[in-house]
Write the structure tokens for this entry.
Amino acid sequence: MTALDEITQTVEPQADELSAQASTVEIQRFISRPEFTIRHTAARGCRFDEHSHTAYTVTAILSGEMAASISSSELQLSAGEVALTNINQPHAAHALSVEFVSININPSLVGELVTELGLARATNDIVFRSSVASDETIISIARALVSEMADEKLGHGAMLDVMVRQMVIHLLRSHFTVRKSAQIELSRAGPVDRRLRRAIEFMHDNFGRELALEEIASAAYLSEYHFARLFKQITGQTPHAYLANLRIERARRLLAETRLSISEIAATVGYQSQSHFTKVFKSITGLTPRAYRESNGQ
């Protein structure tokens, strides 16, 4: 088994780098696989600044409460409730005492199952109907994932694959809506609005270097002003925020799947300063890059 296939570990936080968080995080486990990532956290305090993912995110609250924002909606989530976040949808959260499971689902897996089930073409717009739900099935699957993460048995990886696919099918039955749209095209980031596809693919190709707004806008054949307005209107975030989130998403994968040093990873994803990279990474994930790597068994 390689780091790319699966990585998981329970972490006792390191006092020298986690500082205030060292006394608040009780459990931190990650599983990283090509089609999904799973995070199990139990903490007496946590905060995640506004960010987004290039994946669908399902956050199941197992105990305690969490205050969250998804786009412009302010939510107070309690045990048994689930937050549902679309691809690239801005969200943030904080809690004083909470246990939760967060599953990031690659849009390619959703598209694959949509096609298998004959629901729609991969270029349709697949979105959650609402941002929050009370769903015993999702909570049950989340608890089963926690159990599987904590106690590896024969067929561990295959069981995780089956459970996540079961969750996606349930989401398609109960929480996703498939909207036909002539504006949607496939890109390396999944289905995107065709007016932004060139710019988004340009950012995916060049996020490791300094990018000016003018350069990104030119990829979409738009002026800076019209591109920035259109991007914000369609995605709910600025091009700068999208680029920052893209860099952190890539950094997560490099921390989990490679032995590159943190300074090398910072430079690879476009940060000249390791300290700045650490600050941004922690504000989004709740962990320093070192703690994140340790929780993934690196």
